[in-house]
Amino acid sequence: MLTTKELRELDDAALSEKLVETRKELFSMRFKHATAQLENTKALSGAKKTIARILTIQKERQGA
């Protein structure tokens, strides 16, 4: 999981790519959680927070 500082250093294309990648991870983790295969359930909330951070940074850049 990347920190906010690391995410801000990425350019727009890399940020969009990271968003798609994190959403795929979240999708996969949801299925694993539903079938009781996910051991680290805290990773779900971490992925959601990373997605929120990326979207926030993208919105800030659009407005600036």
TrEMBL record:
It holds the Pfam family Ribosomal_L29. The keyword Ribonucleoprotein applies. One of its GO terms (molecular function) is structural constituent of ribosome. GO terms for biological process: translation. GO terms for cellular component: cytosolic large ribosomal subunit. CDD domains: Ribosomal_L29_HIP. Keywords: Ribonucleoprotein, Ribosomal protein. The keyword Ribosomal protein applies. Belongs to the universal ribosomal protein uL29 family. HAMAP family: Ribosomal_uL29. This is Large ribosomal subunit protein uL29. It comes from Pseudodesulfovibrio profundus.
